[in-house]
Write a structure and sequence with these properties.
The structure holds two protein chains of two kinds.
Chain A (H helix, E strand, L loop, with lengths): L13 H18 L1 H20 L10 H31 L2 H6 L5 H29 L12 H21 L2 H18 L14 H5 L2 H15 L5 H20 L4
Helix pairs in contact in A: 1-5, 2-3, 2-5, 3-5, 3-6, 3-7, 3-9, 6-9, 6-10, 9-10
Chain B lengths: L5 E10 L2 E11 L4 E5 L6 H8 L7 E6 L13 E4 L11 H9 L8 H7 L15 H13 L5 E5 L7 H16 L3 E6 L2 H7 L2 E6 L2 E6 L1 H5 L3 E6 L6 H7 L5 E4 L4 E6 L3 H14 L4 E7 L2 H9 L5
Parallel strand pairs in B: 3-7, 3-8, 5-6, 6-7
Antiparallel strand pairs in B: 1-2, 1-4, 8-9, 10-12, 10-13, 11-12
């Protein structure tokens, strides 16, 4: 085979570059065992385990009706925040971000591709969780589609938080911190344990957490058929704050 | 096409108190191979990374294809091979090259390039499982897949086995023949001597010499031979034309410099015969780039 090295420089159209990068990132997430554990296996196990066994007091509601919205919120957090923070932290450490910076793919294009990859994985998570929940007897009050604004704003807020961490901390520190934050937010964000289980005094603080806003919003839509605006406001505030800070502090090398 | 491929004037780069690049000036012509040669820590990578747009200069002027090195318009026109890394460890060999190729309008055929660099049988191997040499070759492939006008190669043959080094050299030769400008850094003299049209030797962040390999090594030739140590060279010198030099370095190794012609050779062998020694391993050679390099940058390790 002959190769013609005669210069023929030119960038591909943005759409092609972004789709290629997004596909590569999606494959990377789905191929990574630890990521899959975090994004699919843990949420599904929590859903199945806590739905079948009476481990937590969820009040009058059926357990699966209470848990499914929380697990959907957890799925968003695991992909947009934990997974993305760790992956991006190591991409920075391995010089991948630097190397990509020498290609025609702009930073804007790279961020767009990362967002698309996160959304693709989240779509898969939502499908799996909804199917499992139905099999467990879940019957939502509202449409899953009505939860979209919460899931999308939650994705933005958690992506901002993940990128903020990945762009500042060393890769190992990001790994540790992202897992720690994941555990803490899983524990006190209303995912599995209702916020009513916590003392009155700390509840306002917990309610301001992005995970609590996301869980609360999705739960209101799916369990009560409501559409509260306060959680959307909290998530939007987190998104603006974290994405803004990440954009100012992110180090590419 | 008026401007050179790379033009650097009075470049200064400091890291804290350390001055890595200290008033460096160089120019790389279009369509030529320019080698930046220097010991470790001489400022090679800093200089190249400023030209690649990864770092900013503290002062000085840098123009790449006539533009500011950070100009995004340069990205499709310039291929980059980092000294190491740059690839996600779990990414498969062919997958990475295909991904990078998707960023360019008229990329080379990925499969053909993999075959050309001996990577076809590792197409599905994750990057982290490739040998060091295979990783280097993949980085080289990614640097050229977009059919750039100018390629920066930072120590392209570091860690390569002899076959892979030759494959890399052949590729650089082909790039040059196709009209691609190449700027590479190396601390292998033979690499610079063999590949480069223009060699820039830098040390302590400054240019200490530059020119074609031939002009750097000079037309001057040397006569070398081995014999028992301690021969009286003063006597030989009186017999040699004025301007010749003779030295023993190290013991038992003799070097005669000057106008090396049949007469000089005859004089030296006659003197050896008179001394009753057989000149072993007698040969006439040009100074190598390595000699020049060591003269300029010193012999001490750092």
């Amino acid at each position: 085979m002959t190769l013609d090295f005669t210069p023929a420089p030119g960038a591909a159209p943005l759409r092609r570059m972004v789709l290629a990068q997004a596909a590569a990132e999606t494959r990377a997430i789905l191929r990574n065992g630890e990521q899959l554990l975090l994004t699919l296996i843990i949420p599904v196990l929590l859903l199945v385990g806590f739905s079948l066994a009476p481990l937590v007091d969820v009040g009058a509601a059926r357990r699966v009706d209470f848990l499914t919205p929380g697990v959907l919120a957890l799925a968003v957090m695991s992909t947009a925040f934990t997974g993305q923070a760790i992956a991006t932290g190591f991409e920075r450490r391995y010089g991948v971000l630097k190397r990509l910076g020498a290609t025609p793919l702009s930073r804007f294009g790279l961020m767009l591709a990362k967002t698309l990859a996160v959304l693709a994985v989240e779509l898969l998570q939502v499908v799996v969780i909804v199917v499992v929940a139905y099999l467990l007897g879940w019957r939502p009050e509202g449409l899953v589609v009505a939860a979209l604004p919460y899931l999308l704003l939650g994705t933005a807020a958690f992506s901002g938080l993940g990128l903020l961490m990945a762009g500042v901390l060393r890769a190992e520190a990001t790994l540790a911190a992202a897992n720690l934050v994941y555990l803490v937010l899983l524990g006190c964000g209303g995912v599995v344990f209702p916020l009513s289980a916590f003392p009155e005094g700390v509840r306002p603080v917990l309610e301001a957490l992005p995970i609590a806003a996301l869980t609360g919003g999705v739960r209101a839509v799916l369990a009560e058929g409501a559409f509260p605006l306060a959680p959307l406001g909290i998530l939007a505030a987190w998104a603006v704050l974290t994405l803004g800070l990440a954009a100012r502090t992110f180090r590419w090398e | 096409m008026g401007s050179p491929a790379v033009e650097v004037v009075d470049l200064v780069k400091r890291y804290g108190g350390l001055t890595a690049v200290d008033g460096l000036t160089l120019s790389a012509s279009r369509g030529a191979v320019t080698a930046i040669l220097g010991p470790n820590g001489a400022g090679k990578t800093s200089t190249v990374e400023i030209c690649e747009g990864f770092r900013t200069a503290d002062s000085g002027l840098v123009r790449v294809l006539g533009r500011d090195p950070r100009d995004p318009a340069l990205r499709p026109r310039v291929g980059v091979m980092l000294q190491s890394g740059g690839v996600p460890p779990a990414m498969r060999c062919a997958e990475w090259l295909r991904l990078v190729s998707r960023f360019y309008a008229c990329p080379l055929d990925v499969q053909a390039l993999l075959v050309r660099l001996g990577l076809a049988e590792h197409a599905r191997t994750p990057y982290r499982r490739l040998s060091g040499g295979q990783q280097q070759r993949l980085s080289l492939a990614a640097a050229v897949v977009g059919r750039p006008e100018l390629v920066f190669l930072d120590e392209p043959t570091a860690g390569l086995d002899p076959q892979a080094r030759h494959a890399c050299w052949d590729l650089v030769g082909e790039l040059r023949a196709a009209g691609v400008s190449v700027v590479l850094t190396t601390h292998h003299m033979d690499e610079a001597e063999r590949l480069a049209d223009h060699v820039v030797i830098i040390d302590h962040g400054r240019v200490v010499a530059e020119g074609s390999p031939a002009s750097l090594t000079g037309a001057e030739r040397q006569l070398r031979f081995r014999a028992r140590p301690g021969l009286a060279l003063e006597e030989l010198l009186t017999a040699l034309p004025v301007g010749s030099a003779a030295k023993e370095s190290p013991a038992g190794h003799y070097i005669i410099e000057g106008q090396v012609d049949p007469e000089l050779l005859a004089t030296v062998t006659a003197w050896c015969a008179a001394e009753g020694v057989t000149a072993d391993d007698l040969r006439i050679e040009r100074r190598t780039l390595e000699d020049v390099f060591l003269e300029l940058t010193g012999r001490e390790l750092r």
